[in-house]
Amino acid sequence: MEFFKIRRVIPFMRFALAFNVISIITFIAAVAFIAIRGLNFSIEFTGGTLMEVTFAQSANVETIRSTLEKAGYKAEVQNFGSSRDVLIRMPIEKDQSSAALSQRIGELLRANDKSAEIRRVEFVGPQIGEELAEYGALALLVTAVGIIAYLALRFEWKFGLAAIIANLHDVIIIVGFFAAFQWEFSLPVLAAVLAILGYSVNESVVVFDRVRENFRKLRRASVTEVIDSAITANISRTIITHGSTQIMALTMLVFGGPALHFFALALTIGILFGIYSSVFVASPLLMWLRVSRAQFVRERKSRRDENEGAVV
Amino acid sequence: MNRFPIWKYALIALCVFVAFVYTVPNFYGESPAVQISSGKATIKVDAALLEKVEDALKAAGVTYTAALLDPNSVRVRFSDTDTQLKAKDLIDKAVNPDPNNPSYIVALNLLSSSPNWLTVIGALPMYLGLDLRGGVHFLLQVDMEGAITKRLESLAGDLRSQFREKRIRHGGIQREGQTLRIRFRDAAERDRARAYILSQFPDLAVVERDDGQSLQLVASLKPQALKRTQEYALKQNITTLHNRINELGVAEPIIQQQGADRVVVQLPGVQDTAKAKDILGRTASLEVRMVDEDKMNAENLARAKAGSPPFGDEYYVERNGAPLLVKKQVVLTGDRLTDAQPGFDSQTNEPAVHLTLDSAGARIFRDVTRENVGKRMAILLIEKGKAEVITAPVIRSEIGGGRVQISGRMSTTEANDIALLLRAGSLAAPMEIVEERTVGPSLGRENIQKGFDATSWGFFAIVIFMSAYYLLFGVISSIALACNLLFLIALLSLLQATLTLPGIAAIALTLGMAIDANVLINERIREELRGGATPQASIAAGYERAWGTILDSNITSLIAGIALLTFGQGPVRGFAVVHCLGILTSMFSAVTLSRGIVNVVYGHRRRVAKLSIGNTAWK
What we know:
Chain A is of the alpha+beta class. Chain A has helices at residues 16-37, 43-46, 61-70, 98-112, 126-154, 157-181, 187-217, 223-255, 257-288, 298-308; strands at 40-41, 48-54, 76-80, 82-90, 117-124, 184-185.
């Protein structure tokens, strides 16, 4: 079986300009969404109390909300997974110990419906929320810097820069989606975003590796041709690998239940846009940064120079 | 060219076998067990207890499948829940002769049923996080400022009374923030005060200050003293928490320091958060009373043991078993004790405990010792309304300034233990719950099931695809992927790293990413074949050319994983651990292991006409 019988090199770079324009537009759109609508942070970042309650029959979100309001609690109530599960979110209340809080809420709910069962309670104080947000940002920064450093070592700083710009573009797009649809942005989602950053760069590295090899192999080809042939040669591997990772993300979406739902979503978006960014963003960036054969063929040249002055 | 030396094949086979052995405990399931742990701070769990329990069970004819001793508990496994329940009652009666004053906590628990020989070599099932087991997680923050404030207030009190005694005149001592400001009317007094503080209060650093109105000394805790106060506050609290949590009879509690001022408490299996929190809030207290040696004769002791001690006394038994009559009157309470340190008697070099009392305590104590040198005093720890004698030493001497030394009949370990107990009994710094997570057990089981389903379905889908697309090489890649999973689970079990729900997601993700290496290799081999190379040469070239790329791409994923590991907390940490380990195992299994198998299949053949790697002709 072979899906990718590609006999000729596909001239990807011809459309480099068009791709870059699309990238810039999507990037700006993502940033706009993040700035205007903001992210729907989970309580891990904002602090507050979260309770997951399950009932024997379908729960009426409205009645629960009004019951809590009458008792003086500002709560956000929504369905979660099945219609019998309810998620209750409450912002931080001063002078309220969380034990007392979850007991009280449990009693209130049980007064209406005896089958109410508290499955999970999470309480995060405000300091912890701030700290987790800080750590998340730090992790992102450290990852980006680490990757640039590593790629600068293995290839050349231009590659490192191109890879990071392309893949941060990925990350912003994922976050943009979360802002646009107001999906819950929790710690596992942040973990998924970081994993995708690593994975995307992974992708770019495979292409760059091939570019480097091609520079050495294809003596007379221009930079554009070198890049094009690198991408073409890797197309089948790109699609298959992304496909298999996507299969895993898909099974998580289907079987993972509500806990892993947003995590799997972040992964899916990351995988799809990963292909896009590595092929259509990183490579054109390489072109614009004027990557040239000269960097890779230095050794040969110097050896020839040595021999030229020899007197025979 | 496609042959490994024999030792390499052997190494790979050995790795797979070892990984298998360490993965197997995860599949044994759990059996009912009884766990016996110490119910009192003064009682330890040791081999003698294990023997007692085993004897009790054997005597009653109750069969058990295994009996193990850990540092904190004795665990006995049974084949079914009926035997488990019967055994629990039996053991309870055997180790706790007085049901109203239990020395040990006997609790029901579930233990892995893997055979003993596996457990002995360290092959245990994976350690499941709370979101998979169910239970309670608290993060408590110690109010460090509060601890320091309290210390300063008590120092201020001490200074006031000692200045009065030494007749050092001053114009007032006030605490301002984290310093003490002492005012004086003339320089001579101030100098006297300063000299006195420097000699008697080594923890304070003193600075002179003049603000026009009065001459002042500003005293603050030296940085080392500050740090020490904070550390002690934290450790005191942790000890107190330990004692409290034993009360709940939780199977495997975790109480750890996190950072400079926080404590993590994890109680797997606990449902009643309200009770847990209530218990965490309480503290034990200390009392010092005199031993009534005059009345301690055989007759009185026998009557006291039977339940009627002489008037004004109470009957207690020391830790070493000796009976005591202790006067009911309380001489000193624990809040007068500011510190307790293990040390050595200055004269006899015996192990001793050095106590520091605040000034009121010191004064009371001085009065008591003046009349009672050579007599015994009892220090009692009161928990849940029940008192126990920690130690009943002879009063030797007072070192002065509220420092008391108790010694006699204690080893260095005992001195350490007693000092710790005394600190736990005195007031701990206030604590606040800053984070809480509770997961019900049904949710925990559901999470495991979901994670498992997602991973297995994904795995099968990938295997089917790879085998269809790359034929034999696809099958080899799938075997490598399965071994990758095996290595990963074995490593997690061996390291006893915590597995959380995001951790299971990381396993799924790792499998998806690991297949990348094999795809790279297979595609490369195909390309070489298309280019006209011989099958054997293609295999060699494919693996060689792909290796550089595989290394680069895995390292970049590893960088992201390590960043998450460093900065992540809680369930996300579980994700990072699995992610990083998965990358490492995938490099080994995708490259070395699959090459090993390929070599066995193709490498030793003289002539290979065609590789079973799918359509390379592109017709």
